[in-house]
Amino acid sequence: MPKDNVYPFKGPMLWNDATCTAQGFLANFAQMCYIPCNAWLAIYYVCVLVFKLKAGTISRYIEPFFYIFSLVSSLVVSLIYLKDEFYHADPLNTHCYTARYPIHCTWVPDGEECYDNGSYLYTEAGYYANLKATLYYVYAVFGILIMCMLVIIINTYLFEKRIKVESASSTVQEGNNTTSRTGPRNSNPASLDTNSRTIEAANTSQETKTTRTRDGLKFSRIVAFQATLYILTVFIIYIPLAISLESNDVEEGAGVYSRVFLQNFEGFFILCIFLYHKVHNLRRSKNRSNMPLIEALKLIFSSREDRDDFFLENITMVQLESDDIRLRREAAIQAEMDVANEDSFVDDSKPDTADLEKYEGISFASPGVSYNYGDAVSSDGKSSIGPSAFSHSTPNFDDISYDVSKFNWQSVKSGAQESSSNRYYEQRSYADESSC
After folding, report:
1. Are 2 and 19 in contact (CB under 8 A)?
2. For the stretch 375-394, what's the b/e string if a residue is b when 16 or more beta carbons lie within 10 angstroms of its beta carbon?
3. Is the alpha carbon torsion for 40, 43, 48, 54 positive or negative?
4. CB 277 within 8 A of CB 220
5. What DSSP string describes 331-394?
6. For residues 138 and 235, what is the distance between their CA atoms, to the nearest angstrom?
7. Where are the annotated segments for Disordered (predicted)?
8. Helix (H, G, I), strand (E, B), or coil: what is residue 98?
9. For residue 108, what is the DSSP state?
């Protein structure tokens, strides 16, 4: 409370109206920055938990807008109040702030006259317009916080429900795998051993994944609860302020005490939520899972080592959704590659016209070879097949036509030699069969 004021304050009175104005300017600028930052914090949780955005993406594209809006709007409004000399001592507050002076003044004819320097804020219309603007600003922040809180809670509930359904289906699948192991067995021992090891490895992997998902899901629920606590803290602190702004009467009684004490304990509430997160994060390690609360707090405050390996994007609820998105994206890319490969294979399988032109005029019809089998009856009445029992016509190589200009004679010669060799082995085969 400054010395040069009209209030009969019983406590110590220090400094003057200039220091009160500086205090009011800083307090208004800080609070106008802080109120939207509560909304930005809730939006940050929604971006990570619901929309699965990376921290780098948020800090690069979203946070600069939040900071610029908060700083610019707070600075402009604070400078307007400074220009109109609207910072005064307030007996119903713990510091100098924006207030009419004196606080009990009214604009009625018989009431206490308000200080007036000729600015719009010191008129009755200007004062209530400023009051409504402040009230709507607080309500807008409340609306954002309520929507974010509902989205976080609903998203966490749906995520846990989906995980439970998937866990149940995986349990059924594991039972089917067990049944397949006890069913009919393959006659190949190597295949049996391989299948058995594959199924056991898959079951072990599934059990490990289920355990990790269950533990991570618990921490995901804690993070969602932490986000809800931040939002509820804002409601607890600023609801009395909204009630006092709605009231046209002089502030007194429980409303004043609740607003004064709760607003000054705001930092303490935020610290408690932050430590709540730190303790749970510390207990995630295996050797500290049952660490008492007091011991955990001592370790957090006394240790200079950064033990916080926690990021919102690393929790299970975000990781699993991000994995699903990544798998769907990779499947789409793979499908596009398969289609491209099929098109390329079809193009490659088409005959090349330039290569076919080299063999123009050549007939690739096989030389005619015919065999006439005859039964030879021996003296004992049994039939036998001998070399004389069949005849084959000699292929006529003159039937093969070629164009010397488009075909190499050496290849034709080698082909004829190969055909002669094939006839020789066929004759030897039939002769062997006859002798048998």
Report:
1. yes
2. eeeeeeeeeeeeeeeeeeee
3. negative
4. no
5. HHHHHHHHHHHHHHHHHHHSPPHHHHGGGTT---PPPP--B----EE-TTS-EE--GGG--BPP
6. 10
7. 170-210, 414-436
8. strand
9. S
* Single-letter code of the amino acid located at 223: V
For the stretch 217-241, pLDDT in tens is 666 777 778 888 888 888 888 888 7
- Helix, strand, coil % over all residues of the chain, rounded to 5: 70, 0, 30
Q: How far is CA 314 from CA 105, 115, 184, in A?
A: 56, 57, 44
Query: What Cα–Cα distance (Å) separates residue 67 from each residue in 30, 77, 108?
Result: 13, 16, 42
* Angle at 81 (CA atoms; ends 29, 124), nearest 5 degrees: 130
Q: How far apart are CA 62 and CA 58, in angstroms?
A: 5
pLDDT at 3 over 90: no
* Spatial contact of 280 and 295, defined as CB atoms under 8 Å apart: no
Which residues is 97 bridged to in the sheet?
88
Q: Quote the CA–CA distance of 89 and 2 in Å, as a whole number.
A: 7
3-class DSSP assignment, residue 97: strand
State residue 304 phi and psi, 5-degree precision.
-90, -10
Smallest CA-to-CA distance from 320 within 153, 159, 165 is with: 159
Helices 254-264/266-282 angle, 10° precision: 40
Q: 325: which 2 tokens?
A: 């998105």
Quote the pLDDT of residue 215: 56
CA dist., res. 385 & res. 390, Å (int): 8
- pLDDT per position as a tens digit, 358-378: 555 555 555 554 444 444 444
- In the beta sheet, which residues pair with residue 392? 371
Whether the Cβ atoms of residue 412 and residue 401 lie closer than 8 Å to each other: no
Q: Count the residues in the chain.
A: 436
How far CA 422 is from CA of 47, 419, 429, in Å, comes to 77, 5, 11
